[in-house]
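Side project, low priority. Logging it here so it doesn't get lost.
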Amino acid sequence: MDIKPVNLKEKFDSFSKPWNPKIVGELNGQHVKIAKFKDEFIAHQHEQEDELFLVIEGQIKIELDHNTLEINAGEFVIIPRGVQHKPIGVGEAKVLMFEPKSTLNTGNSENEFTVRKLDEI
């Protein structure tokens, strides 16, 4: 068993493409993912999965049906399953996510942002 710390700076430095999540760990049936958020993503929802977004660097906004959340570095938000949401990177933000392995990044939508096979870095 190879147990070692994960250096998030090194992991974020290893890729540049926004909205392309990477797996950096697994925990109790969950993927620990990182991604760079830049500009607007698509509005979507996940029927079966809750999502946790932890902002490591920068700021993101998440548009909901009736309001917009602002999440700053050092803050996180949990989006419950079934809630329509649209992530937005303010400039470029670095985000860590906890999601069940079954979570598709675009939820109930398939489009140019959909990533079916995630790289493990």
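Brief comment: The mean pLDDT is 89.
Revisit when time allows.
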